[in-house]
Amino acid sequence: MHMSASTGKNDRRLRFVLKLSMALTTAYIAGTFLFGLRAHSLALISEAGHNVSDLLAILLSFLAVFLQSRPANDRKTFGYQRAGVLAAFVNALTLIVLSGWIAIAAIGRLHSPVPVQPNVMMIVATFGVLMNGAVAALLWRFSRDVNIRSVFLHMLGDTLSTAAVIAGGAGILFTGLTWIDPVLSLIIAGLILWSSAGIVRETFNILLEGTPKGLQVPEIRAAIQKIPGVLGVHDLHVWSLTTDSHALASHITIGDRPLAESRAILKEVNHALEHRFQIHHTTIQFEATDCSKAEGCCNPPRPVEEHACSHDHAH
Ligand SMILES: [Zn+2]
Ligand SMILES: [Zn+2]
Ligand SMILES: [Zn+2]
Ligand SMILES: [Zn+2]
């Protein structure tokens, strides 16, 4: 919607970084898979599988960035801004499933241990640390966007967990204790679960039109009510289009005033909302008297069949 030139430039840079990340991940998948086959290592083959899901996650984010930059039209009046939120939500859900799968496989290995080759484990994990670390570093500066943050956090988790695999490989090499491998897998599963649960919570709130993270509706209501000329605030809604784009709709009672005066009040209201709460998109309905009594207006809005109040105008 309110796209500036710098946003466009930022988007181009982000697209380049995402393409580079996809190339690095593809090379890593090929390497892990080939080494896994040669060493008959199930652990390495499943690491390759895990990275195929990472590649899908980056691809989804790439598509979301592409969609987000498409302008609004008459069929999508908000544009495609929520595409990234939706991509992050789906990513995080699949990762929760993946962490469950790793945990089950790890518990299975604790019951019936599988011999592992610590040397191959350590060599491949070293490449994993380099690759995941590079992708995480590339994405770090774009991580304000929830969609990119989901990929960034994931890559950070992968970097730490592959580093733990190196340590685990060394541990197995020196002690011969094979349970180190499944215990490491359980810790990795816990990390994945922790990072994705946070993203599911945040994106679910945006998809449910919840109050944006960090904003308090009573504070916003009080700030509007403090503006001279405002008699009352009702039917107040605050929601997010994306993580950093918030919108507000409200009815404000100002008494019977000339239009020029109401325009001055509107300017004050929008100024307060923009500077104190970073709400840039507002829809405000001014009323002479409180419509909840005079016109049968409802707060909160209900579906038509449950509409408890009557409108005294003809349709
Ligand atoms: Zn991963
Ligand atoms: Zn607008
Ligand atoms: Zn009203
Ligand atoms: Zn009504």
From TrEMBL:
It is found in: Membrane. The chain crosses the membrane at residues 16-36, 48-67, 88-108, 120-140, 152-177, 183-200. GO terms for molecular function: zinc ion transmembrane transporter activity. One of its GO terms (cellular component) is plasma membrane. Residues 19-208 form the Cation efflux protein transmembrane domain. Keywords: Ion transport, Membrane, Transmembrane, Transmembrane helix, Transport, Zinc, Zinc transport. It comes from the Bacteria. PANTHER family: CATION EFFLUX PROTEIN/ ZINC TRANSPORTER (PTHR11562), RE54080P-RELATED (PTHR11562:SF17). Belongs to the cation diffusion facilitator (CDF) transporter (TC 2.A.4) family. SLC30A subfamily. This is Cobalt-zinc-cadmium efflux system protein. The lineage of its organism: Bacteria, Pseudomonadati, Acidobacteriota, Terriglobia, Terriglobales.
